[in-house]
Design a protein that fits this description.
The complex is a heterodimer. By secondary structure, chain A is α+β, with helices and mostly antiparallel strands. Chain A is about 20% helix and about 30% strand. Chain A contains eleven helices and 32 strands. In chain A, a hairpin with a 7-residue loop joins β9 and β10 (about 230-235). Chain B contains eight helices and twelve strands. In chain B, α3 runs antiparallel to α4. The two termini of chain B are about 25 Å apart. Classes of the chains: A alpha+beta, B alpha/beta.
Amino acid sequence: MGLLYPSALWFFAIVPALLLAYLVRERPQRVTVSSVLAFRALRALKGERPWGRPQLDWLFLIEVVILSLAVLAMAQPYVVRKRKPLAVVLDNSAAMQARTASGATRFDAVRARLAATLSGEDAGAEVTVYLTAPRPHQMGEPFEGGAEARSAIGQITVTDAPDDSDAVAKLLTELASGRRFGEVIFASSHPLAVAHGRIRTMTVGNPAPNFAIGSFRLRREGFGAAALRGWLTLANFSPQPQTLKVAIAGDGKPLANAEARVEPRGVVSVELPQLAPASVYHAELQPTDEFPLDNVAYAAAGAIKSVEVLFVSPTPADADGLATLAGVKLRVQSPENFSPADAAKADLIIFEYAVPKELPASNALLVMPPGGDPVFNFSVRPADAIQIAGWQRPDPLTDEVNFRLLEPRHGEFFDLHPWMKSIVNGNGGGLLLSGMREGHQYVATGFNPFPYLGRQNLPMSVLTLNVLGHLAGLGADSAGYHTGEPWLVPAGVEKVILPSGEAVVVAPGTLFTADTQQGIYQLVGASGDRRPRVTNLFDLAESDLEISVPISLRAASEEPGPTSFTVSSSLTLYLIAAMLALAALEGMVAYRRRRRALEVYP
Amino acid sequence: MLGLPSEFTPDFLARLEQLRIKTRREYAGMGKGAHLSPKRGSSLEFSDYRHYSPGDDFRYIDWGLYGRTDKLYIKLFKEEEDLLTYIFLDASASMAYPAADRKFESAVAMALSLAYVALASGDRVMIRLLAGDGERLASGFVYGRHRIVELARRLNAVRPAGRLDLLPALARELVSIKRAGKVFGAAAMDVTAVQILGGLEISGQGIEGNVELVDAETGEHVRVAMGTRSRQQYRETLLRLSREIKTFCFKRGLHYTLYTTDRGFHDFFIRAATELGLVH
């Protein structure tokens, strides 16, 4: 123990002075009694005279203690303790859910080994715990002693998210090279490619066969069609060929079955045509294995029965051709009346001669947008005569379009756009741009296809339907969300209900990071409307339990780390807390005395 | 109710009706009553003989004595008269402290209870205040149980105040009494002393730590440090002083009783009737 400002102890000299002043100036409480006869027999207060014997009322003693503590606090005392620095890097990625031969999961097995190791650490150890998934991060503040760390590790749950081997390697390199830790315990299913003097590995899990769903995507059969088409990727991580069966259910009802023979360490794609409409689809793989997480997958469809199109235009009559399409539910609105809340209700928004004031929360087609808007920042050049100069192929937007016969009469050319790429080019610049932002697809055209929608201009109609189908269909594609990957909260969403049932309050436009569980997330709007969003593991590297990728450190220093370090802890806060507690006690006792006296002798 | 103390419940009044004041001697009264008087009278209590004189009532001639002595004697009997009851009430400032004990209110209830016992049995009552502030009480005796309301009203108007040196003050009051009788309060007469102490006063509650105590009557200041030991010492001293008063009373043939305000008034009054000089 030491003192930061020992000279402050000189202030102890004022304690006797204050004591003397206290005794001289003391004004005891005055109480009128019926007779002082019986009190005369008591020992009189000698403190009436400054040189009298001090009165040992314990409240006075408390005040002396408070004063002494104040002087001590001014000296700022501290204690110095030696600590053994220890880092624990615990793999909590999805692969740690795989069961071992004993029946316990890899995570439980490694945690038991960690607990045994940490119980050998004395109370002087300072244990810093790092977790690997979804991204390597430190778990709170360092723990004092092995017991506290053991207790904290016991509370950790394994995630459904994969880990990033490179990021883990980077973390281990930093910990092993830095001067902060003398020893690093790496508890994982991944071995170290090359042993390091400061890293003690604790590897769990033997190679095991595993079958996995690698992806599950849905698209509409066609623009405006009710039925969906599904694609599944199945993987066989075993030394034997295996027939893998998959059962699809929609909103809990069985819809389809499929099977495929998959070679050892092979991956196949299975197509599931004509899936009946449902809100959420669930795929389950057979046979089951020791890693059940990747044997199931989810996919969510948008509005299935009809495509709800919001047409925002100053010339609503242009939407007449669109209204004749089967399976399309059309709403027409003027640009002045459009609000972002309208976007959440539509599968697709078409802005004709207009752009929204913020990025719409739905896929959108922008027809001849004005230039220089702050959201899309289009740079446009009007043109009286347009000729098609080139187009990208293959591309879902240009598929089966006879561009030689496509003759848009007038329009505008787009200059280079920061995030939308040009799919169709004209003789003066881009004519059709496509790009993705915040999980939504946007297409912009430099000409207006809607007056020509119909049989009179077949190439234009095919191109228009390609664009609308692409934009409407992408909303039902489930390939976008993986466990542990943050996503932006869409406009209008106020709350997200996790697969566990826990509700998280969110703000639109912020990153949502609590997506470490595989399953269905409900996005709840202000009016209570819910939209399902599914999140899957879909990481075949994580599903491969046969080969666990070794972690390669990046030129880590082999210098031995510190075996211990000293920590200075200030005691001032404790002293102030003790002073406040004593002052509160004194105040309470004085108040109770006075109140009792007033009750008896008012 | 009618300004009577809250202790005067119908049940308590009924029990007071059953009590009578007991005296160790016979005192002359002011009218017919239930107490034997030193005067000759018409009670059944034999007193003396005297020679027959012409005109005496033949019914009182003792014929047995005439047979033995051949002389006529008339039997004399004692008179039964009312008892003159004096109640002295300490209304000095000390009776107001501690206020929470309500000592003076208890003393008033005690005085009125004794007065009611006397009035209910046909005796005459005079209440005199020792010190005090407020309307002075009438100096004469009151008679009849209905006068209890008047006594209560007058006592309610009294506020404890002033300084009192009890024994000299009481002595002055007793000397001023022209007709002997029963005295409550604190002489050549039949005296019962009732000491009233507050329950909180005895326990010493409300006085803690360094305190400057002021005597309610003398204004004397005493500084004490009251802790657990000091409080115990104070309590012992107070009880010792009370015992000294009791010894003083007994040595002089006075009835003495101590009432502490934390006891139930009704229960105390009925149980302590003998000590108060009352009989059923």
